[in-house]
Amino acid sequence: MSSVENRVFAFISSTDLKYNLLRCLFIAVLGVLVYSNTFFSPFSFDDAANLQNNPIISDFSISGFKQAFAYRRSIGILTFQLNYFLSGWSLPWFHLTNLLIHIFSALAVYQLIKMLLQTPYACKYADDEFRQLPIPFFAALVFVAHPVQTQAVTYIVQRFSSLATLFYLASVAAYLKARFTQLEAHKLFSMKALIWIIVCLVSCFLAVHTKETAYSLPAAIIMVELLFFHSSYKKISCLAVGGLAALSALSLKFALSNRSIGDAVSALDEATRVQTIISRSDYLLTQFRVVITYIRLILFPIDQRIEYDYPLLRSISDWRVVCSFGLIIFLLSVATWMIIKSRKSFPHLRFISFGILWFFIGLSIESSFIPIIDLIFEHRLYLPSFGAFTALSTGMLMFAKGKDVPFKKRLFEGMLLLVILLALVAWKRNSVWRSEVSLWADSVIKSPDSARAWNNLAGAYIKERNPQEALKATIRSIELDRSRAEAWNNLGVAIDLMGVYNDRFHRTFELFREPESINEKNMNRWQGEVNNNLGLAYEINGNLSKAVEYYRNAIGYSPALGLAYYNLGLVSAAMGDASRYSEQQQILWMIDPYLAERLQVRVRNR
After folding, report:
1. Spatial contact of 152 and 161, defined as CB atoms under 8 Å apart
2. What is the distance between the alpha carbons of residues 491 and 537, in angstroms, rounded to a whole number?
3. What is the model's pTM?
4. Do 393 and 357 contact (CB within 8 A), yes or no?
5. Which residue from 312, 443, 572, 583 could staple onto 307, CB 3.0 to 4.6 Å apart?
6. DSSP assignment of 306-348
7. pLDDT, tens digit, for every residue of 449-490?
8. What is the mean pLDDT of residues 491-509?
């Protein structure tokens, strides 16, 4: 047993090149095992709109490339175009590409932390024992195996998040190489340093054109410079002036392109919000609480889901806002204290503070004052998680510093077991993605008040041609939010799939193809038809009292809608309400004799 333990210990902590390569291989193999059950997971949620129904993805030509670069996420789109060109819509190839990006990102984490351990600060204030701690290895292992990463990897379209992070990490690593080269050559400019600076800028360009989260990259590089290099006040001032100049140039660009200050402000407002009219203050207040949820997911990855039923917080005095903001300020204060405390010693505090600050910088675009239609998504943690895992790995491994070898063995083995546990949980989480039904069924269990989750579950049942379950899910979605047009569409599609009810509902989803058709008369007609359809859905599911309620609603909106009287008559007869049945029969004889006759025959033949 001790021989095995010695080999494991050497594998984890040895600085030999052989073990370094084995550790990289282990990271890659673990990544493959965690995601081995995802290669046939179907396209889900936004995959349809952004990939399958996007003609640019299937246009692998000069014209297609030009169209791709018209988008803000052009580099990511190019990779999807290449996927389609090589394998069509073959799921395994799309998933394999995402997995390779994830593995390379984990290897970038490993290499980046190794480089941080070679910076001037680490070389001056960290002893050999600290710099030989396997912080890079465990941070990379947790990065590749943590369940919170599954959405960014298994959800195909979220390649934007993982690929942008890969380029982001590569840009920071290239910056470090450039700085190392400058220090070795004792001069600011050299050919080798210039090459690495170009690599840094190219990686930055690729990251920015993959996802907007990469706009925080300059802040991350400035933080690395300030924490790990001996920067002068002159250099810090230059960085600050450069940042202000870039912001001024951006504002000037908008002002010149729109020719007035008012238009420039309007354009900036539009550019810094995503498909929502939520106020910036409400979004920011809500994000304080969202950030705490993200921290909880990092520490305790349980109760994960694709759709969070998250409330919009509007008051700064709301206890959820106050407590969340207080905890965020506490963490930032701790990071600041650690930086001050680690000026000439305690290097572990410097690395932990780096991790905390990276976490918040990584969230600064999507969890700030830039409103986004979705308040929370797990894939947004992919970039920030690097900082969190670096801080956690450093904090845990510091217990090994100054201890004897047996204690270090126990600690390393315990951390390895923790990684394996995370990998098992991630593999289990990935099994939820095996079908759209299982994905959304999991979501409605955990977010039972999310109208979108119920509607998407209905859509998944429709794809599997299970209209009975689709109707149940659609009814629940409409009960939660009557404004979702796609839910009313799914209602009609599900009834249509059942076949036997084709003469009792209207396909309302094509009513408003032209904007000029949206008037009071048509709206009342539409309300009558959708309430009639909803009544039929309740009737199909055996809730006759609810069916009666919505048939009456339909008549209230559209008194000439014969189908509503017809359906109400059938339900009344089924419930044994002869007077209400006779009433509907008499009305139908006046407005639609054909339906009146059909109602009479149908009830007689029951």
Report:
1. yes
2. 8
3. 0.91
4. no
5. 443
6. S---PPPP--TT-HHHHHHHHHHHHHHHHHHHHHHHTSSS-HH
7. 999 999 999 999 999 999 999 999 999 999 999 888 889 889
8. 84
pLDDT in tens, 107-145: 999 999 999 999 999 999 988 888 889 999 999 999 999
Strand runs (DSSP E) across 89-157, as ranges? none
**Helix, strand, coil percentages in the chain from 3-state DSSP, rounded to 5:** 75, 0, 25
**Rounded to 5°, angle at Cα 119 from 115 and 122:** 110
Contact between 216 and 361 (Cβ < 8 Å): yes
Band (pLDDT 50/70/90 cuts) for residue 323 is very high
Tokens 């126990």 label which residue? 410
Distance from C-alpha of 81 to C-alpha of 60, rounded to nearest angstrom: 6
Tokens of 236: 């810090």
Across all residues in the chain, what is the average pLDDT? 89
Contact 564, 532 (CB under 8 A): yes
CA trace torsion 517, 521, 526, 527 (10° rounding): 140
Cβ-defined contacts of 183-186 (< 8 Å, 24+): 183/120
Longest dimension (CA), the chain: 100
Cα(397)–Cα(129) distance, integer angstroms: 11
Contact 355, 116 (CB under 8 A): no
